[in-house]
Amino acid sequence: MGDTHSMEPTSRIIVALDFDNRRAADEVVGRLGEECRFYKVGLELLTAAGPDLIEDLVAQGKEVFLDLKLFEIPNSVAGAVRAAGALGVSMVTVHSMGGAGIMAAAVAAARDFPRLRVLALTVVTSMTSSDLSDIGITGPPSTEDQVLRLARLAEGAGVHGVIASPQEAGALRRALGPDTLIVTPGVTLPDESPGDHARSGTPRAAVAAGASHVVVGRTVTRATDPAAAFRSVRTNLEL
Ligand code: C5P
User: Fold this and answer.
1) Ligand 1 center to residue 81 CA distance, Å?
2) 225 CB contacts (<8 Å, ≥6 apart)?
């Protein structure tokens, strides 16, 4: 991580291990072998399988994005970030909607772990303007405005990067400059349906717009041949 321009395609791809048991996750990791070097572990798998799985991935030389989506008091956020750092993970997430205080606490806690990057969630990709209005966010005229507002707040708090949909990657890259990590879930291959992603795009479109990393889940993990699906994602990035 660091220079977001010159990364080679494989290092940009993070495969989301969204499973409710370790056996299923281990099977996908085994089938991807050396192809995949970066995995996302979310609350489902962490809760079901425990932190040993993360330590084992790190011991295999994999990078791990621990998607904790922290939204807590600063002291608890800092503690969770330190626990993530002790496991050897490379990325951890905090909600920007929790305010600058918890993001700054996360960044301060990560300083003891040189490889750990704190990423702020802006507006989750399944949310629309109507969802924002339902929770009382009616000020900015669009979802993108809200994403930018939260991203600037996150930047001010010192985070290393943000999570955002492919559709916001370009505006975020322009707003945040060349070095900030921009990690985009919600990517689908050109011949796939967007499924439950409200603001989806292809990996190539996301990176061309400015994403440093793409998160891809079911496209790879639920494929009959996960390694072939992973190669399709990489090929899409190489086009
Ligand atoms: O849809 P897919 O299986 O590729 O999801 C991979 C990851 O992307 C999930 O772990 C989730 O965190 C994120 N995601 C998202 N918004 C969605 C669907 C998935 O941010 N609507």
Assistant:
1) 22
2) 31
CA-219 nearest atom, ligand 1: 4
pLDDT 10s per residue in the chain (239 long)? 446 777 889 999 999 999 999 999 999 999 999 999 999 999 999 999 999 999 999 999 999 999 999 999 999 999 999 999 999 999 999 999 999 999 999 999 999 999 999 999 998 877 888 888 898 888 766 888 889 999 999 999 999 999 988 889 999 999 999 999 999 998 988 887 666 665 668 999 999 999 999 999 999 999 999 999 999 999 999 87
Query: Ligand 1 — pocket residues by CB below 6 A?
Result: 16, 18, 42, 67, 124-126, 185-186, 196-197, 215-219
The pTM of this model reads: 0.94
Indicate if 69 belongs to the active site: yes
* Domains parsed from the chain with CATH numbers: 4-238 (3.20.20.70)
204 by DSSP, 3-state: which?
helix
